[in-house]
Hints:
The structure holds 3 protein chains of 3 kinds. By secondary structure, chain A is α+β, with helices and mostly antiparallel strands.
Amino acid sequence: MMDTENLIKVLDEQSFFTGLSPEQMVVLASTAAEVDYSGGVEVFEEGGRADAAYLILEGAVALELHVTNRAHHIVQTLHESEVLGWGWLFPPHRWSFSARTLEPTKVVRFDAIQLRAAWESDCELGYEMMKRFAQVMTGRLAATRLQLVDFYGDTH
Amino acid sequence: MVTLTEPAVIDQMTPIPFKVRSVREELSHTFTLELEPPNGDFDFQPGQFTMVYAFGIGEVPISISSSSTREATLLQTIRRTGAVTHALGTLKSGDYVGIRGPYGTPWPMQESKGRDLLIVGGGIGLAPLRPAIYHALENRDDYERVVVLYGTRTPDDILFETELRRWGDRTDITTLITVDAADRGWYGAVGVVTRLIGRVGFDPSNTTALVCGPEIMMTVTAERLMEGYSMEPSNIYVTMERNMKCGIGVCGHCQFGAKFICTDGAVFSYSEVGHLFDIKGV
Amino acid sequence: MSEMYVSGQSGVGRLIQALAERGHRVIGPIVRNEALVYDEIKGVEDLPKGWTDLQEPGRYRLEQRGDEKLFGFVVGPTSWKQYLNPPETVLWSGVISPEGFVTDPAPEPPKYAFFGVRPCEVAALGVLDKVYSTSNGLPSMAGYTAIREQAFIVAVNCVEPGGNCFCVSMDTGPTAEAGYDIAITEIVHNGNMRYLIEAGTPAGAEVLGDMGNLEEPSEAEIEARDFFLTEAAANMGKTLEVDDLPELLKGNARNPRWESIADRCLACANCTMVCPTCFCNTVDDNLSLDGTHATRTRKWDSCFTLGFSYMHGLPMREGVGARYRQWITHKLATWVDQFDEMGCVGCGRCITWCPVGIDITHEAGAIRRADLRDTPIGIGGFA
Lengths: 156, 282, 383
């Protein structure tokens, strides 16, 4: 575990937080802690309670969907400096995918209850963060759509 | 009465027989023909294509995947999609195919000296990039960073996988692979190929991008490089595909706006063709 | 200008004879199936004396003129491209052996004289020359070059433009300025059929020299010729506003007007078949039933067919609007980028032979009136 000051330094280097005020960074960092995972470990499980947001500092995480009678299907992999998980944002606060590390992975874990409370009480911060999450979501959605197109496929 | 240009010694539409040395299955629907040029020599530049003729069946444009410095034979990597490619896929060592060419414009290997090379391939689009990658590796000092990003459908659809892995082990070239879909057991990236761009280092102001793959994959890659990295469209190269019948600019089939893809391309800078991609039915 | 001669109809016949004697197969206009088409002619008696053609959008009728004119009409559904680049040409044939391919001997290229080539068609030959023989610095299309270089061109200037003619707009007529070996102007002077003949090349002069018995025209005859040709230029059936046309069409790729044309266009490809410059072709490879002998054939193709843009089993130009846009934009805009001139010579065939009467001059004008270049929808050109 790192103290808040060191965590702010770590987060300051992440483009996701660029432009936030020092005060806002203190609020965010106070909900967070750095966590290390070895490879092949489940960070969270599909259907489980979504109680945290993650930012990947190092390593890689696979988002998996369990399909009956099939292997675990990897929907997308997330890498350095990417945000992991938004199931914690809205009720019922459940994960719609499982997240599993593909290699030793270092993340910053933000406590969901504290984060939501902080955004509710400081709507300016909350709105700013929601904009950033929305941008990540639309980017992921666009990327997923392109995967769905299956443009390398044999037939049209 | 008129005098036109010098009459062709041999008509450009006459196929030249090349002997098949080997047929190598690459992927479930993709194979590589290894062909012997009749006079032992075949001059071409990375990015060019030939018209490959299955005797009596038909002819298809196929980009050259051999590296002229590594291989004395002509390699053509082909996906079975129609009657001609299926017929080519049934050939055996000692059979003949007809070859016309090489045709088309090359990748800008000379113009890119002193720059980073960002090579982005999708699916079978890696085939025409293979000669460019080897050119860069064999003239390594001519370029700054060399990055190869490859996207394909699943882990079973990785073309030239052995070579990609070998490049991945080298320190003078960065190679990343991503697939659209995988099951647990795949430890690489899953996601559209553009998501790899953010994970590699290159200097957008001094980079030439060589992009080859399905049209939509090339447009999203080019758009990403322009919007996310402020790259100039003139430094982004793509290679176009249409149903060319002649390869020499006289059949009209491969017109794309004012361009004949066979002679003005198939390698184009995005500044030449990018504005046409979003008009339906060009 | 080279020396001008004059003769009556017998001189026209002697010219046909002279060309035949030089080994040319003489091709000229004849009446067949109620249309004026090009085919072999043996003498002046084969020419369509006294006939004219009435042309409107989607309409073509022959009528008796009530005079003796040999060239009192304009152009019909055939054009010279069918001789230079026939609808079907064997490009290569041969067998496969353990040593590779063994090519069959190629036939000798035919030696034609084209008799009665209209000024717009002379221009069309020049357009085809650029496409087939100098395109992109590659060796020429050998079959075309061999036929073209041997072809003797007898042009006939137009003193009576047709209802769909607009050569003046395209600067290709009604008088042929170059590109012919011999040019003829047919006039009625003092009640007599008079043919003013001039050579455009040394080969043409040689033929005229061999013919003998050609008179020098009178001042009045030359004046009459010039008068009729000037009148013809002032009486075009159609006009095409070419100013800024390439940029206009390229900048209106998204104009909804294309869809309104698509509602009428049958995508029958008639316009491209009758067009003297449409050059698109496809290549068919065939195998004999016993699998030993292969033939490669070039066939006319058209950008109006669905199959033309097929790639991996799907057409790139699915909609008829996209196909019409491709055709007219190529003719009048991107052709300029490719070959430094427009691909249209103003002969009007595509208007006449369109079964629903779509008029290239009208449609270009419609785009001009609905120009969307300065609106958001117009963004994204076709260059």
